[in-house]
């Protein structure tokens, strides 16, 4: 993805737009976005060429290639002794890539400047397991939980603003995020303008008129088999019809500013409480708990004090001319409440209730 602060890819350029409550206007199934042309014009056959999903979603961060030997895989067998992407780099760049005159990944830099700093070794990663105990660019303090990975760059940059994704789809977004944070070779594909300080960039032979940066990726080749599998897994999930990650993030930014993005049911690794229970603890205890990196990573907005019931129980929303209140919405079954929040204006009127942060005694 392409995050203006760091993630040159991170999380979907097709990603979700504004509130689920306006899904009818802003969100559609992925297969409809590509077949109907919202992402580039009707009749271009995006639904017949799945690679456009990955290429257009993250702007120019990736290019999908048919040659499996010259494409990187965003996920691989965690039991492998070495990272198979190293062989891809050697095939593309040859034995000499200009940086340290070698493809030796043991150098202590990871090149992309987001959370990346120095190589981490022997890190027993919990989520990004293919890179565990291998030289990589990530640590559990950044990728310790899936929720932490999803919210690292702010809630407008998450992958499920249009509604909860199916598990088979969401796993690919987790894999892409792990790839961006952990894969050493990602740094060889920066959209960087200074071949003097980063000579390996000169191998790309691209010309830009933009300001230099060290966080954004440019045309990293990805295996088509991975791209196809991703599309198939997500084609029936909802995404932003705007088609551009930044545009969709901008649409959602103002709407999300007053709602909590943590999952109230999320339980930090090693703890026996959820984010919802954490939110109710006294400030001194909250601070003590949140000093633990895995707690802060799992419940970042709870730790920041942003997760409470901010709704008024008497606030009215309607469905097809029939009025309901936030308190009435709270009484729906979890299944029905999720449906109302996903398909009506309930989310825009009762965001904390939809988020699971309100019980009857909590309403203003």
Describe, in plain words, how this protein is organized in 3D.
The chain contains 17 helices and 6 strands. With 364 residues, the protein is mainly alpha-helical. The protein has helices spanning 23-26, 30-36, 51-57, 85-93, 140-143, 146-151, 167-182, 224-234, 245-256, 275-279, 283-290, 293-298, 300-303, 326-331, 334-343, 346-349, 351-354, and strands spanning 27-29, 62-65, 220-223, 238-240, 316-319, 322-325. Strands 1-4 form a two-stranded antiparallel ribbon. Strands 2-3 form a two-stranded parallel ribbon. The protein has a two-stranded antiparallel sheet with strand order 5-6. The longest helix has 16 residues, at 167-182. The protein has 3 domains: 20-253, no CATH class; 264-307, no CATH class; 316-362, no CATH class. It starts with 22 loop residues before the first helix and ends in a 10-residue tail after the last helix.
Key descriptive features of the protein:
two-stranded antiparallel sheet; 3 domains; 6 strands; two-stranded parallel ribbon; disordered N terminus; 6% strand; 17 helices; mainly alpha; 364 residues
């Amino acid at each position: 993805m392409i995050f203006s602060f760091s993630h040159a890819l991170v999380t979907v350029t097709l990603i979700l737009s504004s509130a689920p409550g306006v899904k009818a206007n802003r969100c559609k199934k992925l297969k409809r976005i590509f077949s109907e042309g919202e992402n580039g014009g009707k009749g271009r056959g995006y639904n017949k060429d799945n690679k456009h999903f990955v290429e257009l979603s993250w702007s120019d961060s990736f290019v999908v290639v048919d040659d499996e030997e010259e494409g990187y895989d965003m996920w691989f067998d965690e039991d492998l002794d070495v990272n198979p992407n190293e062989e891809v780099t050697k095939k593309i760049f040859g034995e000499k890539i200009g940086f340290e005159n070698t493809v030796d990944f043991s150098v202590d830099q990871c090149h992309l400047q987001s959370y990346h700093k120095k190589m981490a070794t022997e890190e027993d990663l919990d989520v990004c397991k293919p890179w565990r105990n291998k030289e990589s660019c990530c640590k559990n303090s950044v990728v310790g939980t899936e929720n932490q990975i999803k919210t690292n760059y702010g809630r407008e940059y998450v992958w499920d603003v249009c509604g909860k994704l199916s598990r088979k789809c969401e796993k690919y977004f987790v894999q892409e995020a792990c790839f961006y944070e952990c894969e050493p070779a990602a740094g060889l594909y920066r959209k960087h303008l200074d071949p003097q300080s980063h000579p390996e960039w000169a191998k790309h032979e691209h010309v830009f008129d933009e300001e230099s940066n060290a966080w954004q990726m440019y045309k990293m080749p990805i295996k088509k088999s991975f791209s196809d599998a991703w599309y198939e897994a997500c084609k029936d999930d909802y995404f932003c019809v705007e088609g551009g990650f930044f545009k969709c993030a901008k649409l959602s930014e103002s709407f999300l500013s007053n709602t909590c993005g943590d999952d109230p049911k999320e339980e930090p690794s090693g703890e026996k409480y959820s984010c919802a229970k954490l939110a109710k603890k006294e400030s001194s205890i909250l601070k003590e708990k949140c000093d633990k990196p895995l707690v802060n990573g799992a419940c970042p907005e709870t730790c920041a004090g942003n997760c409470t019931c901010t709704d008024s129980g008497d606030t009215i929303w309607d469905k097809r001319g029939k009025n309901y209140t936030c308190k009435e919405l709270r009484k729906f079954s979890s299944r029905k409440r999720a449906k109302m929040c996903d398909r009506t204006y309930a989310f825009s009127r009762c965001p904390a209730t939809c988020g699971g942060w309100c019980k009857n005694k909590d309403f203003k």
